[in-house]
Amino acid sequence: HATAASRALAVTPEAALARMHVAPKLAAALKSWDAGRGGAALATVSADLDSATQAAGLKLYAPMKLACSSLGTAVTDAKAEPPIPDAAKQKLYAGALGTLATAVADCRAGISAHPYGDEDIQTHENPTVLDRSLSDLAAGTKDLYLATVEFKVANRR
Questions:
Q1: 3-state secondary structure of 125
Q2: How close are the terminal C-alpha atoms of the chain, in Å?
Q3: How far is it, in rounded angstroms, from Cα 97 to Cα 103?
Q4: Which of 89, 90, 96, 88 shows the shortest CA–CA distance to 71?
């Protein structure tokens, strides 16, 4: 048991990714989707998600609210693009986008920002709503990764 357990602990996400295989026909379809409008929308969602979570981690609530607004637009745009050419991955992707949309709504509701003086912004946060938003951002990030990890494998070819 000790050997199997130590081998399981040694598996990194990179190692697991290196061992993944995508059928050539699906790989070509995924590469095509990723190079088109769908991939561009996914890249925008990913960038805006990074901005929102980074601002949250730094407790920069005014920038977080702006990043969430941008993420909301990106999610809406991504939902309108062609589906991922794999039904299971598309279902995960749609679920991730739905979870991110919920996170965005909570993010916007959980932060109020108002000008304060000539150069400052005063923010007020609702911790309960923000915690829910952060939880949904994390869940959406995980599902987004699971839905799109095969793109990395397909792009190795």
A1: strand
A2: 36
A3: 10
A4: 96
For residue 100 the two structure tokens come to 């991110």
Q: Give the tokens for residue 55.
A: 């601002």
Listed in sequence order, the residues at least 6 apart from 47 whose beta carbon sits closer than 8 Å to its beta carbon are 74
Instruction: Provide the 3-class DSSP secondary structure of residue 31.
Output: helix
For 20-32, write each residue's pLDDT tens digit.
677 888 888 999 9
DSSP 34-67: HHSHHHHHHHHHHHHHHHHHHHHHTT-HHHHHHH
Tell me the one-letter amino acid at 33: W
Q: How many CB atoms lie within 10 A of CB 3?
A: 7
pLDDT, tens digit, 9 for 90 and up, residues 104-138: 999 999 999 888 887 887 889 999 999 999 999 99
**Do 137 and 103 meet the contact criterion of CB atoms below 8 Å apart?**
yes
